[in-house]
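cache lookup: miss for this entity combination. No prior model stored, computing from scratch. Input as submitted by user K.M.:
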Amino acid sequence: MQTLTSNWEVSALVRQWQRDGERIGFVPTMGNLHEGHLRLVKAARQNTDRVVVSIYVNPMQFGPREDFTNYPRTLESDLQKLTNLKVDLVFHPSDESMYPEGSAKSSYVEVSTQLTEGLEGAHRQHHFRGVATVVTKLFNIVSPDVAVFGEKDYQQLLVIQQLVKDLNYPIEIIGEPTIREGDGLALSSRNQYLSKQQRAIAPKLYDVLSETRERILMQNMDLTDLEQAAIMQLEQHGFAPDYVAIRNAVTLAEADNPTDLLVILAAARLGQTRLIDNLRV
Amino acid sequence: MQTLTSNWEVSALVRQWQRDGERIGFVPTMGNLHEGHLRLVKAARQNTDRVVVSIYVNPMQFGPREDFTNYPRTLESDLQKLTNLKVDLVFHPSDESMYPEGSAKSSYVEVSTQLTEGLEGAHRQHHFRGVATVVTKLFNIVSPDVAVFGEKDYQQLLVIQQLVKDLNYPIEIIGEPTIREGDGLALSSRNQYLSKQQRAIAPKLYDVLSETRERILMQNMDLTDLEQAAIMQLEQHGFAPDYVAIRNAVTLAEADNPTDLLVILAAARLGQTRLIDNLRV
């Protein structure tokens, strides 16, 4: 496994592989890898000849009061895990090489507002701008044939699919299902921020989503009432919910047709830690 | 010479060339090709193995009161000229394939404000957003090694260079000098909008730029005074000037240092026709 920090070396190496007729799989990460990430890497491996993983905590997608500084950075153990999975190349750039003039002065990519203005976009200003911009930059450096993202960040996955479509990237996007702990908690680097007590409460987020799904399937309540009920349940468990939303699973628009494919999305805080999760119906 | 309208066919063909070890040169145009464009094509030919030219009048870079509808479309004669220059591939997409949901709903690319907010950006709202977005889309479809732009659109050339740097495209940008008529008028598709009388006045734009350059080199006047003098001269010739600006030739910032490399940029209207030109000092 090679580890490179230079954009140009990555571009040159990947393009050499492509000249040799090999297909490139790409998994962009912020490091601190868990089983969820490793599943993405395995999916890339199954679909391509070479797997590239990027490890980069992207400042542009964090708000000024968010956890950019404290975000867990565990490069050595990440590299060991990726070596074990026979990843071909890890790209680990510096902030200076990614944003030489600072991320605030960089050109940026904005994905159409219908997908980005609500939910995470409403609670994390310019978050999706930061995500779309860094993914664009990484796509340009790596030029993958396939890129793999986790369904845990469901809205992000849809935003990336829209980005690829709108900006004409000849890249296939694969979404991989969320990996959960035995008690239902979705794997996330941010889980390690939780105190023992908060960790005991955290799986209730998935429980509430699951119960909401059951109620939707029983068709015995209005969707807005179900959202309100879920928010109250979360509050009773000790969460401070940002939102629970039952949306069209393709467009994230308000669900107005009983035959829509639906997804339930939620974000809720436990102390300083913000957890998100989702469940398709 | 092949002519393709499908994004996917272009991507597939170019990537096959790249797998064969060939370097790709790209010239994006809005068609209605004149000697200025042909010079760009020749530059691409000199630097690469395969030349791709796109012909696409991009609605996203035109304002609501601009000349999108009337912009001259001359596909047959354009194709003949490109055949004569032994271009390998012409990409001529439809609006439906470039913006399936309309350009207003598309994801877009915004280049940092220092370069884009003044001059053309101040007079043509969202113009550079449209340019940056379509160039990004075309770069993603064609994935060139080299792309060639004209210096006549000087601010646009700098915006593209910044875009490539900020979004990490491994693409070399070449700027080619402006081609002029014998009387100094810069070649432009919009020149054909001019009446005979306006056409007689039009070369004065270049004359005023040239005279301003002489005065700068003589160092006998304040730059702001020179800008004002040039605007008055243009008005006396019958133009309605949008701006004459003497700027740092690299950053387009106000020139504050006598050792700066300078460029004089101007935009002025003759009736409904808006002409732009520039001259480096």
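stored under new cache key. Chain B has eleven helices and ten strands.
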